[in-house]
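Bug #77: duplicate submission created two jobs. Keeping one. Sequence:
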Amino acid sequence: MAPNAESSRRDFLKIAAGAAAVAAASTPARAQSASDRPPVGCGKPGDGTRVGLATIGLGGQGNSDTRAMLKVPGVELVAVADCYDGRLKRAKEVYCDSVATTRDYKEILARKDVDAVIIATPDHWHSRIAIEAMNAGKDVYVEKPMVHDVLEGLQVVEAQKKTGRILQVGSQRVSSVVYHKARELMKAGAIGELNMVEAFWNRNSAIGAWQYTIPPDASPQTVDWERFLGPAPKRPFDPVRFFRWRNYDDYGTGVAGDLFVHLFTGIHFITGSMGPNRVYSTGGIRYWKDGRDAPDVLLGLFDYPKTAAHPEFTLTLRVNFAAGAGGEDAFRFVGPEGIMALGRDGITLTRRDPDKEPGYTIDTFPKAIQDAYLAEYRKKYPEHKDDLRTGHEEKFLPPQDYNETEAHTATFVEAVRTRTPVVEDSVFGLRAAGPALLCNVSQRERRPVVWDPETMRRVDDSGRAT
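Kept job's structure:
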């Protein structure tokens, strides 16, 4: 049964308050208003050990991660790398003029004053830079998905194991007090035995569909096109591909790698799952016919086998980048005793008392049989015509101005200082990225794909791991 509503709410507030207090000890990001927050800069004094930070990839996500991490006292932004000169110039405007800038991330990895790097490049660079950074003695905060291709994953896992470096994937839900509370509710049996998880994430805007603004000065002189391509197929300079890289399989991982992976991260954290063993996905380009090859509509179905951590359950995911109602989303854990919905404003736990009787369907029976059956039925289930059906709803809200990205980056900095392992390490990251990226494989191959979540390998038709 679910915990008592009032005690559950009190417990969550205690958890949230405790998390806020811990984060406040390492970062001032818990101020009550934006005006109270210190300005972003190259570093802030603090009681903790200095952490020299560098960011590789200064697009929207790279800047968001950097701003969040700089709110932790003692973190100093030493250097940044990007293949577009305009972003390097902007870094000096936003952070401080003394920050070192370069097009070549290898220059950053060679610096002795850099302790940790944020990797927020296009996806096709994630694993390569992460491995090189760990081999260079740097701790790594790498954006999701951790890899561009499933086959790269075990190489990252091996590099982290060999070097002993901290690696944390940048899908922030594992550090959120909301998701910690959801995990607690799930373990307490708040919805009964889980049988299904369903989620969708819709958008209806050009920016939401990755039609990012292209700067007017984009040219072969201001963009290091060859460095951007790296391991991707060679082609002539194309500013659309550079600034809207998420639309192209050569550099991005589409809807699955950008959005599904967040949902896998949350599901695996809440349930303790290693992942599904069967993936099926379908979709295509239905609206944004702008030259992209990544679908703008994608649906995924996933089978999760029974484990010691959770029962067998089914997962459904979908994204539509041309949904007329706009930015709708839902994330629901379903069981026979309730539904737990997670959203931007916290958790809603909806429960209804079970029916007092199973009901009957006897209208097609002869009347004598109906009468005899009903007489026996009412002996077992007396009639209560005036009884009201009961149910209740509980809400669990995060603290005001709570920011899970800031909590996640603070977790990373603490791990760098204390050498404490993080939850979302390379193994966790691969188990979230694997089924997400196999959605793209399934959609292209038009067939289900088998995945071994324990060994983190795709399984071919003969049953062999690949």
